[in-house]
Amino acid sequence: MVRAMKVSGHPCQRATLSFWSAQDDLDTYRKSALFGEVWPASKALFAAPPEAQSYELNGDVPGAIFDA
């Protein structure tokens, strides 16, 4: 699942939030034909270099586990 979001207080910034069952799933997507078409076209629209961060859900925090 991928969600596109606006960044609060920064009208020209956008972010995406994606959920992957495993790192292998993300790696497979990054090697896919779809990513090969979408990413270069999207990246060309950026005014600055993109930033990426990865996080893992923390299962010991109440409410951290949910169905995406």
Walk me through the structure.
The chain is α+β, with helices and mostly antiparallel strands. The chain has a domain at 2-43. Helices cover 28% and strands 22% of the residues. It is built from two helices and two strands, in the order ββαα. A two-stranded antiparallel sheet has the order 1-2. Strand 1 (2-7) and strand 2 form a beta hairpin. It starts with a strand and ends in a 25-residue tail after the last helix. The model has no long low-confidence stretch (mean pLDDT 84).
- The number of helical elements comes to 2
| Class based on secondary structure composition and strand pairing | alpha+beta
Mean pLDDT over the full residue set: 84
- How many strands in all? 2
The Rg value, from CA coordinates, equals 14 Å
Q: Profile the largest sheet.
A: 2 strands, antiparallel
Give a quick rundown of the structure.
This protein has 68 residues and is an alpha+beta fold.
Task: Note the topology.
Elements: E1 2-7, E2 10-18, H1 23-30, H2 33-43
Antiparallel strand pairs: 1-2
